[in-house]
Every structure is written in C-alpha cells, then in structure tokens.
Design goal:
394 residues, alpha+beta, Aminopeptidase, Nonspecific Lipid-transfer Protein, Chain A, 3 domains, 5-stranded mixed beta sheet, 12 helices, 36% strand, globular
Length: 394
C-alpha cells in the first residue's frame, strides 16, 4: 500500500514558499491580510519551519527563541507560534509531524523547553504539552481608582530608556515563574507593534527609572476609549501608585484600563474596593523537550535540600523515558540516570509540576502523576514557587 509523498520540514527555500505559508495564516488562522507582509518581514526567515508534501507548502510554524525564568534562572526556551495547516490536509498528521520534527531539532540545539498558546489542546497533548501557566487580562474602571501620587516624575518614553526598561523587566521576570527572558524580537513587538498607535511613559526618581508603561487606546463608545496596557512594570510602591494616578487622570475619556498579569497583582492591595475583574484568561502549555536538561537548567529554593526519584514516561521521545534522580542543593539541581522511580510521571504531568502550576498531590487526580505520600510531598516542595504566568503572547 502506498504511503504517499514524504513530509519534508525546513526553513523557507524562497519568497514563494514564504508567501504560500502567509496565505495559510490568513485562511487558517484569520490573520489580518493587511498586516501579513510587514509581520513576515520582521521575522527572521531561519525561524520559520515549513512542512512540504510533494513540493507543496502544507503547513508551517514560527520558532521564537529565548529563555523562561524559573527559580531565578533562565532556561533556554522556544515559543511555538503561528501553527497553520492547509485546510484540505487537516487530520492527516501534518501538524503533528511538523511539531515532532521541530522538537527533535530543539533538543539537538540544547533547548530543553518549548511553550505555546493552544488553539486546540488535543494535538499538543498528544505531543507531550500540558497547561502549565496563565496569562490574565485584568480590567478596572478608571472611576474606581483613588490614587493621587505625583511625587515621582512621569515623562514620555525615549529611545535612550530602552536599556533601563529592559533591566526593570528582567528584574521582575527573574523573581517570578514562567516569564520570558526576552530577546530582541520579543522587545520589537512591544516597542514597535504592528497596526496600532502605541503610547509609552517612564516613571523615574532622581533620573532613575522605577516604572514604565506601554499602552494603546481602543474605542469603547462615542469619544471614549479603554487604556489597553501592552507592557508594564512598577518596581516600588510609589511607582505603582504613580501609575494608578496616571490611569485615573484619563477618567474623563477612558472608561477603563486593562493590563496583563498573573492570578494576583500588587495593584490590588492599593485599590480601596475590589472593582477589578478578569477580562480574559488564557492558558499556555509547556513541553519538556529534554527532561534532564530542563531539571538541571532551572533554579530551586535555596533552603531546600532533597532528592526525588522520577520514573518518566514519554511516548514520543525515548531520550526522556526511564528513571532519573534529581538532587537539589543550594538552589541548583543535578540529574543522574537511575533510581527507584518513586514518583511516576508522564512528560505531560511533569510540565505543570515543573512550573508550579499544580502540585504533585493535585496532579494525582489527573492520572498524570502517581506515588506515595513522601514522594509527592518531596516533589511539591522542590517545585514550589510563585504562580507561573506570562505577560508575552505569541
């Protein structure tokens, strides 16, 4: 029985292939055709992976390389974006084979983590991804803000401020879990977004930046708008209050302000009444491409000293299959093959455990983790930390 043409995966060979992939984005993902050409132009061509069947572009995706922060360390990470398949070829395994080949390439390139925002969970779970964190859009009526802090200087953002705002972001991201260690392409999306007019301001004390905000104004009703914060960091209580006062200053025209955060936010402690609400909740998925490298790459609580014997099941990649022993000391982890395998975990179950999105005890109910009480407690203790969330979307 004929197997049909083999699937070939690689970067675009020419402009015609890139255009064919762009056409798939418009048809399959509803991509704005007016923004397609500038979007394609600003990506590095070597970051695209196209799937070809019989010489035809059958699908494609974009790899966004960087890092992801866990326990104060940046782990090499690849975001997978713009996954598209030709409509007449869906259900034939094109996307699965494209992703599998990409993951094999990432492992060979020593990138142990891969993440994405799923349009469907089934395909990605089949390949070992699992929900491992959130991206929350909070919305707050400007009329509910009672802040009058004006002690810190606020001025428009200038190009010379780029290094300072990157430092502010990196400091906050490194103390959390799940935030990206941004590269230039990530910052390009913030500094120069496509299709919108962005505004940006810096808050400083004695010439040193303590906060920044990038936002757009989106119409809500006649002559009114919403402040849509695209990126924001405030490093001190005074800077938080100054940002709130800045937002409140728009209340005559701006009905509300929305921003990206995690399950909690320091803004909430400074609001007199709980008038904020969740406007959108998105989950992102994580895949441990190389389990030992991922476990050794992240940081751990410096006060924890423990060992965990893992028995990992990975139906896709044999290099992750088997027993490993993780030893943590002084905030660093070391992985050796072998051990008793006290904690049995699928590679899917390992993702939310790794990020701290779910504890080992919670994962038992999913069937992705099993073990005795002592092994479960040790796993939850090792991977405890702040709730994982991501401000970037891709």
């Amino acid at each position: 029985m004929s197997r049909g043409p083999a699937l070939e995966v690689g970067p675009p060979k020419d402009d015609a292939e890139l255009k064919a992939y762009g056409d798939l984005l418009v048809q399959s993902l509803g991509f704005d055709s007016k923004l397609l050409e500038p979007w394609l132009a600003r990506q590095e061509r070597v970051s695209f992976r196209l799937a070809r069947l019989g010489g035809r572009v059958a699908g494609g995706l974009l790899i966004l390389r960087g890092g992801q922060w866990f326990g104060g360390r940046s782990v090499p990470f690849a975001g997978i974006a713009a996954v598209a398949t030709a409509p007449d070829l869906r259900g034939k395994g094109v996307a699965s084979r494209l992703l599998r080949t990409t993951l094999e390439e990432l492992r060979a390139g020593k990138v142990p983590l891969s993440g994405l925002y799923p349009s469907t969970h089934v395909v990605y779970r089949r390949l070992g991804y699992e929900v491992a964190g959130v991206r929350v859009t909070w919305k707050l009526p400007t009329s509910a803000i009672d802040a009058q802090e004006t002690g810190l200087a606020l001025r428009p953002f200038e190009a010379k401020d780029e290094e300072a705002i990157r430092d502010l972001y990196r400091e906050r991201a490194s103390r959390g879990a799940g935030q990206l260690d941004r590269t230039l392409p990530h910052w390009k999306r913030i500094l120069d977004p496509l299709g919108v007019t962005r505004y940006a301001y810096v808050i400083e004390r004695e010439g040193k930046a303590e906060a920044y905000v990038f936002f757009t104004q989106e119409p809500t009703r006649a002559n009114h708008y919403e402040l849509v914060v695209r990126d924001m960091v405030a490093a001190t209580p005074q800077a938080v209050r100054r940002l709130l006062a800045f937002f409140a200053g728009h209340r005559s025209m701006a009905d509300s302000v929305s921003w990206i955060g995690g399950p909690g936010d320091p803004f909430f402690a400074l609001l007199p009444n709980p008038s904020h609400r969740v406007d959108q909740l998105r989950h992102w998925m994580l895949r441990l491409v190389d389990v030992p490298a991922a476990l050794e790459g992240r940081g751990y609580a410096p006060d924890v000293s423990a060992s965990l014997a893992l028995h990992v099941r990975d139906e896709n990649f044999p290099w992750n299959e088997g027993k490993f022993t993780l030893r943590v000391e002084g905030g660093r982890g070391e992985v050796r093959p072998g051990g008793d395998g006290d904690l049995k975990v699928t590679v899917r179950g390992l993702a939310p455990l790794y990020t701290g999105h779910l504890t080992a005890e919670e994962l038992v109910a999913t069937g992705l983790v099993s073990g005795e009480g002592e092994a479960l407690a040790a796993a939850s203790r090792l991977f405890r930390g702040p709730a994982p969330w991501m401000s970037d979307a891709f």
